[in-house]
Amino acid sequence: MSWLSDTLTSTIGRKLVMSLTGLFLIIFLVVHLAGNFQLLAGDGGVAFNEYAKFMTSNPLIKFTSYGLYAFILIHIVMSIALAQKNKKARPVGYDKVKGSANSSFSSRNMGILGFIIFVFLVIHMRSFWYEMHWGSIPMDSAGNKDLYKVVSAAFSQWWYVAIYVVCMVGLAFHLSHGFSSAFQTLGVNHKKYTPFIKKLGIVYAILIPAAFASIPLIMFFNS
């Protein structure tokens, strides 16, 4: 197993793991967004509650969820390890002005943006995931846990909606660099394909977080 330890302790290996887990999470965001749009179905939450029950009771989905949680933790651990290693390797007198000119805001602040997303995940999972599994949630007319009521209550509070939207802005910046960076780490670096991947990454980084942010905003102004 020495090859595994060598991979996980090397810069290239850590970047590779971060890229693979990051791409998995990028795909997950699209799936999760599709489910969240059930909140806007206008049926009093029936569709969303059925979706929530399916996501928490289907054996295959539950197994995939455990993999998701593991990938999130691995992604965070690898990012911290890389940040610490880069900090130690960086010269003391590093020219910040020159660094700013040669890199984007997102690439220079991936650690801070990642921390914002992590805080959001803790709040988000405590508010909804924890409540769905162990909270005292009443049943809806179809006999499912009425998670829609919990979400509606949260999204009726301006401060919660504000935190959600701000975190989605942080996610957008994080994705704007992480999307193309993941492909580059995996070796997809070609004069023909790289510009397209970068443009696709920017479009993705704008549309997906904006779509997520639109849901609490719509529910807040309609409440």
Automatic annotation (TrEMBL):
One of its GO terms (molecular function) is succinate dehydrogenase (quinone) activity. The chain crosses the membrane at residues 20-40, 60-83, 110-129, 158-179, 200-221. The keyword Transmembrane helix applies. Keywords: Membrane, Oxidoreductase, Transmembrane, Transmembrane helix. SUPFAM superfamilies: Fumarate reductase respiratory complex transmembrane subunits (SSF81343). It comes from the Bacteria. This is Succinate dehydrogenase subunit C.
